[in-house]
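Pair request: fold both.
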Amino acid sequence: MAKRDFKIFKTNRIKFGELYDDAINYIKSIYTANGRDFTVASPFVQIVTVLLHLGRMILFYIENSITELNIRTAYHPRSVQGLATLTGHMPSNGISARGTLYMSSINDGTSTGKAVRINNYTKIRNNSNGLTYLVILPSSSMRLTVGVNDNKIEISVIQGTVQYQRATGTGEPMQSFGFSVKPNTYVDDFFINIYVNGEHWESVPSLLDMTYKQKACIVRPSLNGGIDVFFGTGNNGDIPPEGASIVCEYIIGAGIEGNLYNDDQNNFWEFIDPGYDDDGDFVNLNSLYNLSSGSDIAFGTYGESLEVTRRLAPHMSRSFVLANEVNYKTFLTKLNMFSNIRVFSGFHTYSDTKAEVDYENAKLNYSSIKESYMSQVNLTGKNSRAALELYDKVNEAKKELDLAKRVYNEAREDDNVIYMYLIPDVTKRLSGNENYFTCPQSAFLLTQDEKQGILNLIENSGQKMLTVENRIVDPIYVRFSINIFIQIWSDYDFTAVKSSIISAVSDYLISNGRRDRIPISDIISVVENVKGVDSVNAFFDADKNNAVYYGEGNFGLDVYGDIVLERNLKGVFGNNIFTNDLYPLFRGPFVSPDGVEYEDSLDSLVSTINITLRGKTRRNDK
């Protein structure tokens, strides 16, 4: 009997239709060899179909399992977040908005001298967004006497509501507890407290950070959006005794929706919770005190996206400290507040680079003049007129060298500084129908309160190195305009097309992350994809004051009409030293080198985005 070939399938034919055809053809050949008929109507064909479907599902499961093992290709959120935790990165659940308010006495004379106690976590409401905020005090309560030193009391507030969950200790080493929360809620990563039998236990990054019998624990965001808490072994960290009451205190916030800026806050605040007098009776705080804006209430963000998690995980510092530029950039990216982040160590700013170049040039100049002087002395003597003239030049060059050296050395003293160049994410600051061209220009800037808040978050994270100083660098804004000329199809309205173009260009500018240049071809491409546009041409114009940063006669546009975002210094040997500290702003008002006055309003005759209709094109009837 001939040996039968059971090789039915091929590795290059694994689609269901190919598997089905190969299986049927094989069965037909067997039936024909035995002298029997075989048709697709046979019940056996149905069995073969089911088996092939099962085989395909098995192959799909295997492929899916392999895909989910790679953080770059994984699709499911739990897979991405789980792989990230293996690197030490803890995906952020979100941050609640925080800031300060001023509380001032109404002082109508009827309550002067009355004692009032305000408890920690007293609830207040902002009527402009309807959200609840909490008064954060350094102690459990604050006692005030109405009308006495209460004209302007600064209080810290944080958006959200406090929630508690309880667990019971087992007395075993390495106890762990998971506290779950409702889906799509944001637990503030910076406000989670653990209490064991009423005593606060410190949160530390890892087990190795716990000292002997230290009352400490590890708090981490859970993959399901909750909170995971881990306790020590006894040698590393204390062990909660059996039956101990373990309470997890946390804040649930609204993320970015809780952000408020000074222009939005005034006269919109009221107390929800009452205060108390010395007898424990309720006191209506709204009748005693007004609340007004202090600092901006900011830093509210949602949990990080899967794409952010994928980018951050490989750069996670296993030492849990902010030791270099990558660690700082990872920390700042997790705040989910910025569209552009650049971090660099000391002596890498434009002024530092210029100080170094000036010092090297001064050394070269001094050496060259001194050499000429010595040659002239050897030739004509030191008392000759030519030698005396060169001697004066040597002295001048020495003074310039000493000055350049002093500036250079002062710049070198800042080499333990970490500089942070931060551009706010404008999309999180737009309200209503605002876009890039209509939002307040303050949306492109970090306020002093926000800068100080960022530095405080870094300081309070416990990850900052003691020997390192942090500074936030303000970007240098150079201004430009966009001039667009379009031909549209005859069945489209110009006003509607113009509105769509402004919206499309706004989206491009907000999401643009290029730090080297902005090609005019990008703008043309964006406009070409707007419905109704037949053809388009465009060019940039610039503010004449841009020359202050680019150099005399240079306004930030190259010979091709592209916007250049680099400026350079000439090194000692004529080489270009490039720096990227410029940020393009397509807002007015400004005047171009040709005297064109660009206004900031879209309703102006000449604004920073101008769209001109050249004509309409009739469609060919078919």
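--- second member of the pair ---
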Amino acid sequence: MRSLVLLVLTCSVSVPLGAQGFDYLLPIEEHVFENGLRLLVLHREGDARVACKIFTDFGAIVEEPGELGAAHYLEHLMFKGTTGLGTTGWESERPYVEELRATELELEEALNAARNTIRERGVWGDYKHAESTPRIDSLRAEIARLDGEIERFRDRGAMMRWYQAFGGTNLTATTEQEYMKFDINLPAEQVDLFLRVEADRMRNTVFREFDQERMILVEQRLGDLNRPSTPYYEQMAGLVGLVHPVFWPEGYATDFAEYSRWYQRDLYDRYFQPNNTTLVFIGGVTLEEMTPKVERYFGWMERVPEPTRARAVEPPPASERSLTYRSDDLPPRVEARHMIPGVGHPDRPHFDVAGEVLRIRLERAIEAAGIAGAVNVNTRVVHTSRFGVPGSVNVEVVTAEANLPAVQALIDTAVRTLGSDDMTEEDLSLAKKRLRTGWYRTLRNADQLAFEIGHFQTMDSWRTLVPYMESRETTNAADLRRLSAEYFVPENRAWGFVRPKTVTPPISQEDDR
């Protein structure tokens, strides 16, 4: 199946004067192969390079409690090579890999058998009958021995050397709640290399350096948690979302020890399939050129039953919630979060405009009140700002602790009166201009645009992208009033307050002397 879709914003609709002449044309071409693999190409005449990305519809929302962070961990493992890359001799390495897999299954059985012995029973993570058993210790020692044998065949950096040798730049990978992507920027004549490497990665990944990568993930997580804001924001996300994994953090200390090769292999086998994958290319290639190339490297892969979807559905909000977080390292602040629809819902684009309008009005309000503070309005949950499921819009003001009650009242007024008569046309125009400028910068950067196309495909459909941007242009005061009445309501609100942990006593007159 092939379709050419040209998505154009015309000026015949009610578009602000500042947007007239702004070009939303995206000549994306699509080919879907028999095995379900999706190919999207945006040709740029005369471009000598190509932004290449492969998206898998997979991420943290399919993780299970006790395995949080496993999706990100799988990304790390998929950089450790395949049966052909990253080894000095696969046929010699293979028996050790197979024996290790079998030993780890025995370990899992031993852990299950000892569940009552090693179960955590303390509130503060401080009481088990025992940390381990002789059988568990013996199997772990055997796994360590086999890992040492496998290490003899390790050829580190093979994939990177191939890419760099043929002009590749910006080799990256990212895993968030709803996607995993690998990407590289290559000369147009070397695009076959991307297809060869990524097809190999999809089918033949070998989980090498398992415990080393586990510790790298622990270090990354600890680095994240060392930022004073991270624990607070994770508490706030948990206050907004009751059940959906999109609100879960990237793993707790207890999760990392639970990671196993068999669980990672299960995720890999279920989700890294052609009918769960999208290839995106922007630059000096055409659909006609790319179709036979992709067919050569990916066409032999068979379509499989559709991977398991994330089944959780967040229940409708029903109560106003509040959280007080005490920290001497994080400046005082007050924040209001409201749950908002996911991408694909007609209201979602309007929240981008609403967020900018709220920022503008709150900055003006706190200045008029003579309050010193920094306003931040975003839709971020963990690291991502858009989802195909409900997320949240977060309105935060960092200010002195004494100002928190007054600023809370200002936030409450701002969200309740969104789109009211005191909002000027200049406010709305400026909000759209800021969003338009950001989109224009995305258009000029092939790597960023390719990301947006692939991200929208994993959230909903790539065809949603341009209509989403168009809808932001048509947002008016009536839309904002409707959002205020429907979403910015007490039963859909979570308040967060950051206050000092240490209370400083007032200075007495005697001390002052």
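Observation on the second member. The two ends are 84 Å apart (CA to CA).
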